[in-house]
Amino acid sequence: MAGLLVAIGVAVVVLVLPSSGSARHRAPAAHVAAPPPAPPLPPPPTPKPKPRPAPTDDPWLFYGYNLARTRAFPNGAKLDPPLQVGWRFHDGALLEFPPVIYDNTLYFEDYNGWASALSSTNGHLIWHRRIGTLAAASPALDLRHKIAFFVLLSNSPGARVGGNGSVVALSMKTGKVVWSHPLGSGSESSPVVHGLSVFLGDQGGTVYSFRTYDGHLNWAFHAGGAVKGGPAFAHNTIYFGDYGARVYAVNAANGREIWSAGGGGSFYSTPAVAFGRVYIGSTSGAVYAFWANSGATAWSASTGAYVYASPAVADIPGLGPTVYIGSYDGHIYAYNAESGGLRWSHAAGGRVDGSATVVGKVVYYSDLGSNTSAGLDVRSGRQVFGYPDGEFTPVITDGKVVFLIGYSTIYQMVPKR
């Protein structure tokens, strides 16, 4: 019995040993979760539209170049004569007032009431729109809303005198009408824009402030006679003359009179504001300088004949502050802007009706008698340029070339270098 137990024990041992020795038992593999899929990559950022390149020209936004209408271009050192014609654009009608300039485009209107946008680089029309029947003014530009403002003497068919006019706001890009406002007496007062307001006068003696983007009337000021010249803006004030022989300073924000001053004759001239004074020509034959803050007369000088022209005012190196203005007596005058003393005069040979313009070292004017344009050295009055076309205000510039305005033709004038 003992032997049997031993044998059974050995068997058990034999049976157990193989199961715990040579045979390998594999545990079931642990389950490992698959990594979550990577989130999708965000779409590539939409490239921002490239901003339109900044204009390569120097804007000339108003008749008279700037808000103060000084008609003096400060960056004209490389634009002195000699000049040669690049392109020509023939409009076919009188161009009594010059274009304005922005972003390689000239904006202007002709005597027959056509408004146009013209490429300044090649002289090709961009758009051309009939907005009236009689016009004699430069437009003004509102860059914030890309609007050009034109005034019209008349919208009546065949009109040759003012009446039934308007102010028309056009898209600078397309020439489409944005808004318009009737001006019963008509206007030849070149507008000026400051902030959200556009200012202009009319033949009935009213000066207006309209909101630029929709034509809302901000205020209206009633002067004592027709306001034919454009208002000038300085010191938050609008300055203008009228055919009632007075010059006014009006608050630009509310249209309230600050001062008015008397002068001999009527004022067709658009004033220029500089050196604390308001400079303006009169049909009495005088050139006036009024103190901008009070209206007191700083000085006056007589030319002996109508002064319809508007002044150009500049601080000339080596000469000092100077006023340049033409007269119906056939002369261009250069006056000391502070004292009124005569620096020099130049015999033009015929009536000077339009305004002078200073570009670089040259002051330009047109001769209404001979229909020519000329340029004079600003210091001496010696003639340094001449061209056989011209009527009123002859020259503007974009800082790259000069544009000469003839009777009905615009010329691109390129400096010879």
Short overview:
The chain is mainly β and 417 residues long. The protein contains one helix and 33 strands. It is globular.
Number of helices: 1
> How helical, in percent, are the residues?
under 10%
Low-confidence stretches: 1-32
Using only C-alpha atoms, the radius of gyration works out to 38 Å
Q: First CA to last CA: what distance?
A: 136 Å
SS elements, strand count: 33
> Given the helix and strand composition, which structural class is it?
mainly beta
Task: Describe the largest sheet.
Answer: 5 strands, mixed
The whole-number mean of residue pLDDT values reads 90
Q: Spatial order of the strands in the main sheet?
A: 1-27-28-29-30
Q: What proportion of the residues form beta strands (DSSP E)?
A: 35-45%
Looking at the structure, what is the overall shape?
A: globular
